[in-house]
Specification:
The protein contains nine helices and six strands; from the N terminus they run αααααβαββαβαβαβ. By secondary structure, the protein is α/β, with parallel strands linked by helices. The strands form two sheets. It has a three-stranded mixed beta sheet, with helices on both faces. Strands 4-5-6 form a three-stranded parallel beta sheet, with helices on one face.
């Protein structure tokens, strides 16, 4: 989540789309995320709410440019992993705590048609408000979102023989514990400790891009 959001934040700053002092406060939220103390709804109000001043057409144009830029930044390991799962006939989805506004460009860049993310609210003018529809796709609610997605596919957890989830954050432990094959990639200290205790596989991948 942090990589996706921080890349988009830097992109918006380069466009002059963010108010003064935004990046400093955003960094505070990043530290709270890493510490496991983040209020995701509050962060969504702050980060996505900052975009409410911009017309929908301008935001859409920025998102199109952003998607084109990040396509070249995606780690080769991630692309190869997704291709491997897709070649095996597995249904792949991006499951992210970040807002759908940011998650969807990443999903498109990875070639994923399924994106589960925190759902932003929009006003009657088509502007994002910063509010969240339903529970944010964060911590235990990532599993909630995946469960609801499975129902939409006419499935339940019991119908899935094997399931994989790749994560770098201890905030994702509820979903990691729900799947048959949890995998830690560049995990934080707490997650690495949990993975070692549980015998989960761990991977180290290069960080991509200048962000």
């Amino acid at each position: 989540m942090l990589f996706r959001s921080s890349v988009f934040t830097r992109f918006l700053a380069e466009q002059g789309a963010l108010p003064a002092g935004f990046e400093a406060q955003y960094l505070v939220h990043c530290h709270e995320y890493a510490a496991g103390t983040l209020d995701m709804v509050q962060m969504h109000r702050f980060t996505v709410g900052a975009l409410s001043a911009h017309a929908p057409q301008r935001l859409a144009a920025w998102l199109q440019t952003f998607e084109a830029q990040i396509a070249a930044m995606l780690p080769a390991e991630s692309r190869a992993l997704i291709a491997e799962h897709q070649a095996a006939g597995h249904v792949c989805a991006l499951v992210s705590a970040t807002t759908r506004i940011v998650a969807e460009p990443f999903g498109h860049a990875f070639g994923l048609s399924h994106v589960l993310a925190t759902e932003p609210a929009w006003d009657e003018r088509g502007h994002c408000t910063g509010e969240v529809i339903g529970p944010p796709c964060f911590r235990e609610h990532k599993r909630t979102h995946v469960s609801a997605w499975l129902v939409r596919q006419g499935l339940g957890w019991g119908d899935v023989t094997r399931s994989w989830f790749y994560s770098d954050s201890s905030n994702d432990l509820p979903l990691l514990q729900a799947v048959s094959d949890p995998v830690v990639v560049n995990g934080d200290a707490r997650l690495r400790a949990c993975a070692q205790a549980a015998g989960w596989p761990q991977r180290r991948w290069r960080r991509c891009g200048r962000y």
